[in-house]
Design goal:
Protein name: 2Fe-2S iron-sulfur cluster binding domain-containing protein
Largest sheet: 5 strands, mixed
Number of domains: 2
CATH superfamily of the largest domain: Beta-grasp domain
Keywords: 2Fe-2S, Iron, Iron-sulfur, Metal-binding
InterPro entries: 2Fe-2S-bd (IPR002888), 2Fe-2S-bd_dom_sf (IPR036884), 2Fe-2S_ferredoxin-like_sf (IPR036010), 2Fe-2S_ferredoxin-type (IPR001041), Beta-grasp_dom_sf (IPR012675), Diverse_Oxidoreductases (IPR051452)
Number of strands: 5
GO molecular function, one term: oxidoreductase activity
Radius of gyration: 15 Å
Oligomer: single chain
Helix content: 25-40%
Shape: globular
Pfam families: Fer2 (PF00111), Fer2_2 (PF01799)
Length: 156
């Protein structure tokens, strides 16, 4: 029998009360209860990065991050990224996504990288994206997009 819990979450700048199973990972609350389906389920074991979101300015794997641990935190998902964001524009310009299943998590990680390291080297980008798996093999274009966003001042 599932116990329902009341969560008070701040998602993309909005206070969001929600009811969902106690002990649920943040990913399930985002996708199932709130309809924020831009954050993807890939593996459920922190091995692919498709579920990456920002919690209090840090990247987390939403597939294993307990929703109750996110209460009182500032959560940002891909839906909270403005359409004119330099990282998003760079990903389009570089045609960085093929199937694009991995791209929302990668974009979230790239934005945090550029915030903390506005002028990253190629190896900085590769290290930051290590937790992400792109099964299409678009890694070269993804790295190019992050470097292009950095040149456009995305981290400034």
């Amino acid at each position: 029998m599932n116990v329902i819990r009341h969560y008070a979450l701040k998602i993309n700048g909005e206070e969001t009360p929600v009811e969902y199973d106690d002990g649920a990972p943040l990913l399930f609350v985002l996708r199932d209860a709130l309809g924020l389906t831009g954050t993807h389920y890939g593996c459920g074991t922190e091995s692919c990065g498709a579920c990456r979101v920002e919690v209090d300015g840090k990247p987390v794997f939403a597939c294993t991050f307990p929703a109750e641990a996110a209460e009182g935190c500032d959560i940002r998902t891909i839906e909270g990224v403005p359409e004119d964001d330099p990282v998003l524009r760079a990903f389009v310009a570089e045609q960085a996504g093929q199937c694009a299943y991995c791209i929302p998590g990668i974009i979230m990680t790239a934005r945090m990288l550029l915030r903390d390291t506005p002028d990253p080297s190629r190896s900085d980008v590769a290290a930051a994206l290590t937790p992400h798996l792109c099964r299409c093999g678009a890694h070269v274009r993804i790295v190019a997009a992050v470097l292009r966003a950095a040149k456009a001042g995305a981290g400034a």
